[in-house]
Amino acid sequence: MSVLSGKKILLGISGGIAAYKTASLVRLFIKAGADVRVVMTPASKDFVTPLTLSTLSKNPVVSTFFNEEEKDAEWNNHVELGLWADFMVIAPATANTMSKMASGTCDNLLIATYLSAKCPVYFAPAMDLDMYKHPSTLASFTSLQKFGNIMIPAETGELASGLSGEGRMAEPENIVAFIEADILQKLPLKGKKILVTAGPTYEAIDPVRFIGNHSSGKMGLDIALKAANQGAEIILISGPTHLQAKHQNIQTIFVTSAQEMHDACHQYFDNVDVAIAAAAVADYRPKNPSSQKIKKTEATLQIELEKTTDILAALGQKKNKQFLIGFALETENEIENAKAKIVKKNLDLIVLNSLNDEGAGFKTQTNKVTFIDKNFHTEPMNLKPKEQVAEDIINKIIQHYA
Ligand code: CTP
């Protein structure tokens, strides 16, 4: 999945021959799962039609402050457009448009939108080779980058003038690749390795039976996906579940029993920055699992259970640099019990679920949690979908490294 998926992209098109390539650019953004809106300078409409771009972007295209042909016309709100976008791309950025961006000469909707935008702005220059090297153009590059705009350098090749050299707008594929790489590299968890445990564990009674629980693994999976989307590399150690993490940053290791989960965690723990124990690990397992299927010969059956190793506590003992997050599911004295677990398991943060809260717990799509950190700072959260709880947990990690 592209990092552009779900992103709101505002494409600003200025009047150069390379504008015809923006039809492909819009298609690529849409294919990557982005929502695209287009603002054009009046001159760019000579090179590509608003109809083409609105058809491809599935959104109206704007180029003037209001539509003169419409009676009772409403103004095209450049402030709203600028605030809507996750980022803006100005492609092609002509010498004229860049100069106006640099000086703040606000004589068209594109420049007004650019000046209103609070989001990152990429610009992809396009012009003839001598124009590209002119001191005034170079001055625009410098000013625009000093303002924090990100330049997508022009490429070298045949130009519309018939000359050959530097100045061709980067190809649409390269613009997309440039932006994707830039976003990835700036993600807040880029370079961080995170271990996540998820799902239930199954403890064998005999070769065909086990003791398990109802955990679906969704909480752990949501955490893994949210962290991966913020650039982290994830080792997801999952008990038996039907859910699958499809993300290039997530490596899933399937285990069955608590002991297997424990061993896998210890194999990876030394090399991770963060560990999040979201698995519902069995606390007890059959002491002597039968190697043969148990026959129903007796009227009653007693199975002796022994404690499993507490994986989280073992990681707490071992940790040096790792930020360690655990969960607690409590029914009484919630806060006190959770605080005791922070100390006992040497945690940095605990996510407390209280079964007393309506809408919280195993079988709901929502959860209501309280965060308690190792200094016992307590932060109750609202009832929200589990995906958003996962996001809150990831934000805690981002804050820790900020
Ligand atoms: N956990 C673990 N290994 C275990 C048991 C629990 O890693 N063998 C982790 C869970 O992944 C979770 C936290 O410990 O992060 C949950 O603990 P919880 O079940 O609430 O409490 P326990 O510590 O097991 O204590 P108790 O059941 O007595 O409340």
UniProtKB/TrEMBL annotation:
Span list, region Phosphopantothenate--cysteine ligase: 194-402
Positions of the DNA/pantothenate metabolism flavoprotein C-terminal domain: 189-399
Keywords of the record: Decarboxylase, Flavoprotein, FMN, Ligase, Lyase, Magnesium, Metal-binding, Multifunctional enzyme
Note on cofactor: Binds 1 FMN per subunit.
Record-linked InterPro entries: CoaB-like_sf (IPR035929), CoaBC (IPR005252), DNA/pantothenate-metab_flavo_C (IPR007085), Flavin_trans-like (IPR036551), Flavoprotein (IPR003382)
A Pfam family the protein falls into: DFP
Phosphopantothenoylcysteine decarboxylase: annotated span: 1-193
EC number(s) per entry: 4.1.1.36, 6.3.2.5
Catalytic activity: (R)-4'-phosphopantothenate + L-cysteine + CTP = N-[(R)-4-phosphopantothenoyl]-L-cysteine + CMP + diphosphate + H(+); N-[(R)-4-phosphopantothenoyl]-L-cysteine + H(+) = (R)-4'-phosphopantetheine + CO2
Pathway annotation: Cofactor biosynthesis; coenzyme A biosynthesis; CoA from (R)-pantothenate: step 3/5; Cofactor biosynthesis; coenzyme A biosynthesis; CoA from (R)-pantothenate: step 2/5
Residues of the Flavoprotein domain: 7-179
Residues reported in the UniProt entry to bind CTP: 283, 293, 327, 341, 345
Keyword Lyase: yes
Origin superkingdom: Bacteria
Gene3D superfamilies: CoaB-like, Flavin prenyltransferase-like
Coiled coil: none
Cofactor or coenzyme needed: Mg(2+); FMN
MF annotations from Gene Ontology: phosphopantothenate--cysteine ligase activity; phosphopantothenoylcysteine decarboxylase activity
Function as written in the Swiss-Prot or TrEMBL entry: Catalyzes two steps in the biosynthesis of coenzyme A. In the first step cysteine is conjugated to 4'-phosphopantothenate to form 4-phosphopantothenoylcysteine, in the latter compound is decarboxylated to form 4'-phosphopantotheine. Catalyzes two sequential steps in the biosynthesis of coenzyme A. In the first step cysteine is conjugated to 4'-phosphopantothenate to form 4-phosphopantothenoylcysteine. In the second step the latter compound is decarboxylated to form 4'-phosphopantotheine.
Protein family per UniProt: In the N-terminal section; belongs to the HFCD (homo-oligomeric flavin containing Cys decarboxylase) superfamily. In the C-terminal section; belongs to the PPC synthetase family.
NCBIfam families the UniProt entry points to: coaBC_dfp (TIGR00521)
PANTHER family from the UniProt entry: HOMO-OLIGOMERIC FLAVIN CONTAINING CYS DECARBOXYLASE FAMILY (PTHR14359), PHOSPHOPANTOTHENOYLCYSTEINE DECARBOXYLASE (PTHR14359:SF6)
Protein name: Coenzyme A biosynthesis bifunctional protein CoaBC
